[in-house]
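Illustration: TSP1_spondin domain-containing protein.
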Amino acid sequence: LGVCQTWSDWCEWSTCSGSCGIGERTRTRFCYLENRRCEGKDFEVNACNPGPCPEWEEWNEWSSCSTSCGVGVSRRRRSCLGGALGNNMCLGPSSEQRFCEEALCPLWTSWVEWGACSVTCGVGTRHRYRTCQYGTDCPGPQKETIPCYGSSCPAWTEWCEWSRCSVKCGPGQRTRTRECVKADGARIHACQGLSMETTLCEGTVCCQWSDWCHWSMCDRECGGGQSIRTRICLNTQVQLSQCQGTLISYKKLFC
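Result:
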């Protein structure tokens, strides 16, 4: 009689449990007996080595900080040896980054309070400033300016009428005045310019006397008497009342 076959043939070996380095593979067989009590094992294990595992190189040096001031980022990388970008990639990240902090960035201080108005009346300006700390390259202006308004400025009144000429005849002068007043009408000495103007003027035609005539004879033959002399106004357009002085001059004599 032939020997009964109790075991099936071995199945094919399984794939290696590791993709690299040392792994294991298995194969199985089946027992044909009803009680499943065949002599021997129904599986076998075998070591397998599909090839060396990929390994990381040493990390590169950290890169310089991504910013010249303040908080930035520094990075470093590493390469995978013995592997490819696929199923045999090295485990873990190929790059790392960390925060880095350089010198403090230039930074503006808070604005100071607005300064006083540049004028006490009318339209002026106000300024405020800030300071760049930790450097000199702060963006934006260091100074701000806004308009400001004081009270109403003192102003000149209209000129008064010209005064009369200072002389009745010949060259003279006349004046006119104005006043510096505030909004409420109070007088003040704060306006720019003069409060009085002067101009030349000519009076009416002046009286011009002739030379005196000779003294007359004494009006008495003896004793106390008097002598006279006369003159005339050469300008016929002037009345004698406008002439300064007298038409006749007297002097006492002892005749």
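Reading the tokens back as a structure: Residues 110 and 130 are 6 Å apart (CA to CA).
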